[in-house]
Amino acid sequence: MVDVGIIGSGIIGLSIARELAGRGLAVRVLSRKPPRQTTSWAASGIFPPAPAFSAAGPGEQLTTLSDRLHRHWHQELLDETGINNGLATCGGLYLAVHEAGLTRLRAEANDWQTRGAVTEWIEMTALGQVEPALAPAADRGLLSGALLLPEETQIRPPRHLQALEASCRQRGVEFCFDSEVQEVHLADGRIDHLKCSHGREDAGVWILAGGAWSQRFAEAFGSHVRPQPVRGQIMLLSKPAAVLTRVVNVGLEYLVPRPDGRVLVGSTLENVGFTDGTTESALHRMRAFAGRLVPALADAAMETSWSGLRPASPDGLPWIGHSPNVTNGLVATGHFRAGWHQSTGTALIVANLLTDTPSPIDPTAFAVDRLSAGEDFAEATMQRAAADMAAISW
Ligand SMILES: Cc1cc2nc3c(=O)[nH]c(=O)nc-3n(C[C@H](O)[C@H](O)[C@H](O)COP(=O)(O)OP(=O)(O)OC[C@H]3O[C@@H](n4cnc5c(N)ncnc54)[C@H](O)[C@@H]3O)c2cc1C
After folding, report:
1. Is residue 195 within 8 Å of 179, Cβ to Cβ?
2. Residue 374 and which of 149, 170, 232, 250 are 20 to 30 A apart at CA?
3. Per-residue pLDDT tens for 343-356?
4. 259 C-alpha to center of ligand 1: Å?
5. Is 52 helix (H, G, I), strand (E, B) or coil?
6. CA of 211 to the centre of ligand 1 (A)
7. To test ligand 1's pocket by mutation, which of 15, 31, 350 has the most ligand atoms within 8 angstroms of CB?
8. Neighbours of 266 (CB within 10 A)
9. Which of 306, 340, 344 gets mutated to test ligand 1 (max ligand atoms within 8 A of its CB)?
């Protein structure tokens, strides 16, 4: 029997598996689909500047811890597997498109400065020197302000997941990628075994990292663990050569350039339950956004499009900790829009909890039973997001 079984092969499950196997534990990962079919594979991989520790709340502390660890993991994964996960500090531009947007952007700039990030206002007349593909939009008066965050970073999710899986295999992690967990059997306040589509699974400790689907196992792992699925759609445009060098953000919409000429266009925040897939209307809007902001993208071929379901929690913090219901269960889910950025710190905290080791940040803010039942994050988030979009988008 393995020491630890993990439900989920997304960024959270694989990161935890790697960390635990690195500490000498025997680990088995179960998931009903391979990593390339997870929400994690579908993500954009943007890491905004990590806040300074002193100014940070618990979620920001987790981001900052993780951001530092990502720099180490990048090199370790490269050394261990030969796979470069594409972690690169490319910088991010935040653009305002009208007066309300500019007011909003000024407030955001203050926030970033308070959190210790480097910020630089770019005059409209100079925007074309910073990012030539944005010159036409600036010249046509479509933009009212531009803020540069030089520390913004990107990672290539598919490459990182491939590197994680390879590293896990080298560390002896077992995988079962076509196994749906159907039931969690309890006995004497413990998880006795799991009933899966391919049969029974046993482990000393179980970790729930099932993303938006984790709520199915709330009874065993903690009745408050009820992440809500929030769909995000992405379109991949392709040009023969790179047209942008930085991530470009306008409100909740963004362009993420890859060095090979591909550009990710994202995204949506949709409360549509577990309905996956893309919609004509969202793709149309994203294409119009890209073409209007960067005319060079107006004729770009759409290579493909996809969607993922982000796991949202009521208070915006993930659940990371021991299950209040069983003695051999831990939870790591609910990372919503920051699962990639916060993955390494989450893995560290889970491994520390499991091995009774203190963590660099206090994990109690992420406790599994911290919320009262019935709190509904998705609705509140949707309303905030809709207001945000109205204030700052075209
Ligand atoms: C469009 C989009 C863009 C994003 N961009 C960013 C970004 O730029 N930066 C960032 O930090 N985050 C981003 N995110 C958020 C990030 O992708 C998520 O927070 C993260 O992927 C969640 O990872 P996870 O491992 O918890 O869940 P998932 O990736 O959903 O993995 C869940 C796993 O559980 C398995 N599973 C579920 N139920 C069962 C079951 N019953 N039996 C067996 N296995 C099961 C699934 O098969 C899967 O392997 C984005 C998300 C989307 C959708």
Report:
1. no
2. 232
3. 999 999 999 999 99
4. 25
5. coil
6. 5
7. 31
8. 22
9. 340
Look-up of token digits 């009745």 = 223
Domain with CATH 3.50.50.60 in the chain: 2-85+156-227+314-374
CATH class of the domain comprising 2-85+156-227+314-374: alpha beta
Q: Where are the domain boundaries for CATH 3.30.9.10 in the chain?
A: 90-154+229-312+384-392
Which residues have C-beta atoms less than 6 Å from ligand 1? Answer: 7-13, 30-33, 38-40, 42-46, 180-181, 209-213, 216, 232, 234, 266-267, 308, 310-311, 333, 335-341
Fold of 90-154+229-312+384-392: D-Amino Acid Oxidase; Chain A, domain 2 (3.30.9)
Nearest atom within ligand 1 for CA of residue 11: 25
pTM of the model: 0.96
Q: Which residues sit opposite 247 in a β-bridge?
A: 92
pLDDT digits (tens, 9 = 90+) for 140-159: 999 999 999 999 999 999 99
Q: Name the residue with the closest Cα to ligand 1, atom 20.
A: 339
Using DSSP's 3-state secondary structure scheme, residue 7 falls into strand
Convert the pLDDT of each residue in 376-390 to its tens digit: 655 666 666 665 555
